[in-house]
Recover the amino acids of this structure.
């Protein structure tokens, strides 16, 4: 590991975590405008001072991230939130009551003082309160809002372990707080409350169905499917989460039909001399021919397990050096909407 990137293993999640020396050291680096990767309940974030443009620019540079792709500011309490936003509508109050701390990012009208680079020049700012003791301890110890996209090179699968972070960013950032594997595995849902109807800009750990229970209605931003508009949220515009091999998503009217089609495609690609990867489920993993790199991504009957393993599986295909990946697809309800959004981005919207 490059000596410029410090590593701390925080293996105890206890009260008073912000008093741990390694958390203090990491927080001091953040206050001094350095970059620290840290775990949240969704994925590992790459954190820096969200009030300083020069620090936010370092985040973009470390990730190789396009400059019109806004970041999310992470807060630990209501005081920090009030310092960032110009208005908190009743709709936002209800959503925060239901889902904070947790995997929901809310887009608010912003106050002056938020780094322009963090909001990509927009008059709004995306904020969430993470549901992870180590993340909250770091934010409290730093005593400032932390801007934090996922801690990976731009376009790569997001990191769900500290090792994933080091694979991409070792030597490019100042330190990594290792709090173990993340729990949810896909990023937060981003919802814009600046209009009359809450609008999902990115599906994630909180489902549309859950939001509707609180607000009564929800819209889906067409930018999730297209690339024309300036993005108001991370994950809307560019190819993301992509493995190195060419990836194809395989649709089928039922799981058995889909498995059969994947087998045919894999056999044809192997006959062309390609090394084949197959993204399967626990239910289907034994249905495929030998000779391919077949990796189960959780259970089709439990899509939460699929979300939790998704990015790790994509990285396993890179480690195996596959040329082409054929991925089973999933129902787009509940957390399945987030899974399919990430798979579509990873595959560059290539379907079979």
């Amino acid at each position: 590991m490059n000596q410029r990137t410090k590593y701390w293993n925080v293996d105890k999640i206890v009260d008073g975590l912000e008093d741990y020396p390694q958390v203090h050291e990491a927080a001091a680096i953040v206050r001094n405008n350095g970059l620290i990767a840290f775990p949240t309940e969704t994925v590992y974030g790459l954190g820096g001072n969200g009030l300083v443009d020069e620090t936010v620019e370092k985040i973009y540079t470390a990730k190789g991230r396009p400059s019109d792709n806004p970041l999310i500011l992470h807060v630990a309490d209501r005081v920090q939130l009030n310092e960032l936003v110009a208005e908190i509508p009743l709709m936002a109050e209800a959503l925060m009551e239901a889902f904070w701390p947790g995997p929901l990012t809310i887009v608010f009208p912003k106050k002056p003082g938020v780094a322009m680079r963090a909001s990509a020049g927009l008059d709004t700012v995306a904020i969430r309160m993470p549901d992870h003791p180590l993340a909250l301890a770091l934010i409290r110890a730093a005593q400032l809002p932390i801007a934090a996209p996922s801690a990976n090179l731009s376009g790569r699968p997001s990191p769900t372990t500290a090792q994933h972070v080091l694979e991409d960013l070792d030597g490019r950032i100042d330190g990594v707080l290792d709090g173990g594997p993340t729990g949810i595995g896909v990023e937060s849902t981003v919802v814009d409350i600046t209009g009359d109807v809450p609008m999902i800009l990115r599906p994630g750990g909180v489902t549309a169905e859950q939001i509707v229970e609180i607000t009564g209605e929800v819209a889906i931003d067409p930018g999730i499917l297209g690339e024309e508009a300036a993005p108001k949220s991370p994950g809307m515009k560019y190819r993301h989460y992509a493995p190195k091999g060419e990836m194809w998503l395989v649709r089928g009217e039922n799981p058995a039909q889909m498995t059969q089609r994947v087998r045919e495609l894999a056999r044809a690609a192997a006959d062309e001399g390609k090394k084949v990867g197959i993204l399967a489920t626990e239910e289907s993993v034994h249905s495929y021919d030998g000779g391919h790199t077949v990796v189960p991504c959780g259970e089709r009957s439990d899509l939460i397990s699929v979300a939790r393993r998704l990015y790790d599986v994509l990285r396993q295909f890179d480690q195996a050096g596959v040329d082409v990946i054929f991925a089973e697809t999933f129902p787009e309800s509940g957390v399945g909407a987030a899974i399919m959004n990430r798979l579509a981005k990873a595959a560059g919207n290539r379907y079979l």
